[in-house]
Design brief:
The chain has helices spanning 2-76, 81-134. It contains two helices and no strands. Keywords: Plasmid.
């Protein structure tokens, strides 16, 4: 008789454990989906940042190439050593200024890139902290 009395308790206990396991699995699935969305968002922003940095680099290479070719054409047209010296000094000064500008642009773009790439992670952690506070 004690066996039949134990079975209903086991059934109730097993169903409660089964429900809590299902709830935990549901929470785990929700967290896994959120992490997958975070990874996708970080990947997308990283791709966009890489694209912007590549465009900036190609623009700098193009500007440098045109400056070099222009200098070469002026250099070949020089008629005296003093004119060659003046062309070299002018070219060097322009190249230094151009290099400084390109570094500033790259630095600004890199800073923007880091902010854009960290934005999804920041939002994820802010949401997680808000969820912990409400729980």
């Amino acid at each position: 008789m004690s066996r039949t009395a134990e079975k209903p308790f086991e059934t109730v206990e097993n169903s409660i454990v089964g429900q809590s396991t299902a709830i935990n699995r549901g929470e785990q699935l929700t967290h896994a989906i959120e992490l997958q969305e975070l990874a996708g968002s970080v990947f997308k922003s990283t791709m966009m940042v890489g694209f912007e940095l590549s465009l900036n680099t190609f623009a700098a290479v193009q500007a440098n190439t045109f400056a070099n070719l222009h200098h070469l054409s002026e250099f070949l047209g020089a008629k005296s050593p003093s004119q060659v010296f003046d062309l070299q000094c002018s070219f060097l000064r322009k190249r230094i200024d151009m290099g400084v500008e390109q570094v500033k642009e790259s630095q600004a773009l890199s800073t923007k890139a880091l902010i854009d790439m960290s934005k999804p992670i920041k939002e994820f952690f802010e949401k997680a902290i808000a969820d912990l506070k409400t729980a």
